[in-house]
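Obj: model holo form, ligand = manganese (II) ion.
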Amino acid sequence: MILPKNNRLSPEQLVEVTAIVAEFGCKIQQIVGAMRTIYAIVGDERDELMINRLEGLTYVDRIDRIQSPFKLMDKRSDLASHRITMGGVTLGEELLVIAGACTIDPKNPNYFYETAAAVKEAGANALRGGVWKPRTNPYTFQGDVKSLDILMEASRRTGLPVDTEVMEEAHIKLALDAGVHTLPVGARNALNYSLLRAIGKAIAERDNAVLLKRSIHMGPLSEFISAAEYIAAFGNPNVILCPRGTTPTLDGYRNHPDESITPLLKEKTWAPVVVDPSHSVGKAIYVPAAALAAVAYGADGLCIEAHVEPSKGIGDDPKQALTPEVLKETITQAKQLWAIRRRQSVVQAK
Ligand code: PEP
Ligand code: MN
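Output (holo structure tokens):
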């Protein structure tokens, strides 16, 4: 839909816009109002170049797109009934909880084994553990490939599927060959399109899933969903969106909590939303409330950092990991709230 700066386009301007859209196989349909005329683009209006050329015209105020730029992830796409399953939970039918350490300590594997057993006991459906870590400070521990064996051993011991963030192409193969089920893309790489493409290609013929974290910098929701589209475009649509807080931070929290975008995402995409409250607020004492807020906003799941003894952990664990006891209580409350929330959506849908 073309909205001109003036009440209507001049005949010359109409000729110009008609010629531009014709290059992309579209036509213009005028919608004449009492005060103003607007111009519908009839045809496939998703071509970015056509939109950019129209937006570049000095007499055009703005272009409102009717069609979604995401063909696969859009709520109205054929994939809308697609369901993703992890750890026996079908997203949307039951609350999914992924929990575990921020960073696996390769020198002390028992902490991770104990954490894995404890998060399972607390009710988690899948286990997280960082093997490779994107650290802001280049001199801090960057992760160690040896931790991949620890992660997989914990998976064998508990029977839980595991996730570990991949930051480069080489990690993807190592993780998939080892048997990692879910590949998180971290907030720093959420807009790294070559990595997204590489992941999409690598999982195209498999049933793995991707936990796509929201970029650390606040961007429009369409940017987040389009990043998911990059992966799904290769053939595997198992992409879960993960709000995890953005910058600029909310003074006192690690990031600016963004679980409130969940209902907005759900209006645009069928993709499940699993919120990470740990990185959002960044301190263990705030995490349970943030987790419940996410569920209240309609999240399908939570990804929470937990450690059997947080003060002995590495990476983010000393400050933001929940103890197994707090995790268990948080999961219990989150499941109760999820059930309430589900009843409410059923009533609203009537
Ligand atoms: C993490 O999960 O430990 C992590 C680094 O996440 P994010 O990319 O959201 O910061
Ligand atoms: Mn972390």
